[in-house]
Amino acid sequence: MDRLCTPWRFNYVAGERPEDGCVFCNRLECDERENYVLHRGRFWYLLLNLYPYNSGHLLLVLNRHQHLLSGCTEEEIAEMGPLLLLMERTLVETYRPDGINCGYNGGASAGAGIPEHLHMHMLPRWNGDTNFMSTIGQTRVMPQTLDQSYERILPVVRRLVGENA
Hints:
This protein is of the alpha+beta class. Helices cover about 30% and strands about 15% of the residues. The chain has a 5-stranded antiparallel sheet. It is globular and about 35 Å long.
């Protein structure tokens, strides 16, 4: 029998919070490589989700503590669109998915794991990427580590940002 080990998920599934304060505010100034930050805009930053649904699961995080889009300034909303487009282009080029999910969960009852800090999810999807492991075993099989995803995505993000500068 093959064994699938995902030790990096234990703290998350056990409900443990390994750091004090808001995890997104804590990454406003941090070691970008260590925290999988891919790009910083004026009002938002882009990083890998530490608890991804699929390899390449990206997050776009507002640079300030705010929980709903309606609380964003016009400038924040204006920057969000091009960054979502950057995320989509990056995923399409890097992973060639069959589809893409994008959205945010406004509040805990909507499924937000960190409801007090606005963040958008975007992830690649493939036909058949939900299988018995997710359905029966409550487990996701990730074909890449976060380090591998970061190394694959970062050069694409940098090139696309440079092309649009």
